[in-house]
Write a structure and sequence with these properties.
The protein has 203 residues and is mainly alpha-helical. Helix content is 45%, strand content 0%.
Length: 203
């Protein structure tokens, strides 16, 4: 039941998602579920050192910039804010991770490419990716993979949710995963099905 609530919370665009409402104790299981899923994709695919361009200072400035922008967006568009969709973007980028072969997840930023950007489960997320382009332009050293996952963390904070530990280091792929060694093994059915009860895949 909690998974269904998460799905409604981060996909419904005509709901008033005010921070003071989300701080209610009844939402704690929801935040816990979203936080666990995002952090699974974030931390397990983290690659330390190699290829990292952004500095801690850049990430700090970006975090402040994101929080201010998201809070202003929630205040100015309380019934049609982009902020909940940014949580969904981070969730779906991380949700393809598979523990058995350690493929998928946030690292690589593969939702920029087909087929992942065209999956029905990712419908509506282009508007979120496009919204974040302004920050990619302003902070070009930050990878898309880091930008999307950090945005999910900051979006939860802006809506009154808990502080989520986060670390940088995701590296953007330069080509779709299917162009090197045949078709990608990462498929749409790996994504969490919050509208269909428990997800039974090995994720």
């Amino acid at each position: 039941r909690n998974q269904k609530m998460i799905f409604r919370l981060i996909t419904r665009q005509n709901s008033v998602l005010r921070p003071q409402v989300l701080k209610n104790d009844k939402f704690l299981p929801i935040w816990a579920g979203v936080t666990t899923l995002i952090m699974t994709g974030m931390i397990l695919v983290y690659k330390k050192g190699k290829g990292i361009k952004e500095s801690h200072d850049e990430i700090h400035k970006l975090s402040i910039d994101l929080l201010e922008t998201f809070e202003n967006n929630l205040e100015s568009q309380p019934t049609n804010s982009i902020v909940p969709t940014l949580v969904r973007l981070a969730w779906h980028a991380a949700g393809t991770y598979q523990k058995i072969d350690k493929t998928g997840g946030s690292n690589g930023g593969y939702m920029r490419f087909s087929p992942e950007c065209d999956w029905k489960a990712n419908a509506g997320l282009k508007v979120a990716r496009d919204f974040l382009e302004q920050f990619k332009v302003k902070y070009p050293n930050v990878s898309y993979a880091d930008l999307w996952s950090l945005s999910g963390v900051i979006a939860i904070k802006a809506m009154g949710g808990p502080e989520i530990p986060w670390r940088r280091g995701r590296i953007d792929a330069q080509t779709p995963p299917s162009t090197t060694n045949g078709p990608s093994t990462v498929t749409e059915d790996r994504l969490p099905r919050a509208d269909c009860g428990n997800h039974e895949a090995n994720v």
